[in-house]
Amino acid sequence: MAGRALILFAHGARAESWKAPFERLRGMTQARMPDVPVSLAFLELMEPRLPAQVAALAAEGVSGITVVPVFLGQGGHVLRDLPLMIDALRVAHPGVAITVVGAVGEDPDVLKAMTDFCVAAARP
Q: What CDD domains does this protein map onto (predicted)?
């Protein structure tokens, strides 16, 4: 197992079909990082939940995990819930360095791609 891993962290939903774009994103990311395990984890309603995914990676010997919130913005889940979970995970897995980056939707390149999509959709 690699020394580091990437977790794409999403909200979760009751409809199983909601997971499909996140699975595609995970697959596309994994293809670009073949030596780094890339997985999905969810806040609620879907499995695996973030604590279970971090525990599984820690058990496999991963020493560093980057968590990417696949959210459009820094709402309550990213600002309040995620930091509390990360604090608890750092206590539960002291040998694993856990880094959290900003919400994907706040990245300027992601916003540009979304703008390009919206502009293209408005063209005849």
A: CbiX_SirB_N
pLDDT of amino acid 34: 96
* 84, amino acid identity: L
**C-beta atoms surrounding 21 within 10 Å:** 11
pLDDT digits (tens, 9 = 90+) for 39-89: 999 998 889 999 999 999 999 999 999 999 998 867 667 778 889 999 999
Here the CATH number for the domain that contains residue 48 is: 3.40.50.1400
Q: Angle at Cα 116 formed by Cα 113 and Cα 122, nearest 5°?
A: 145
Angle made by CA atoms 83, 105, 76, in degrees to the nearest 5: 35
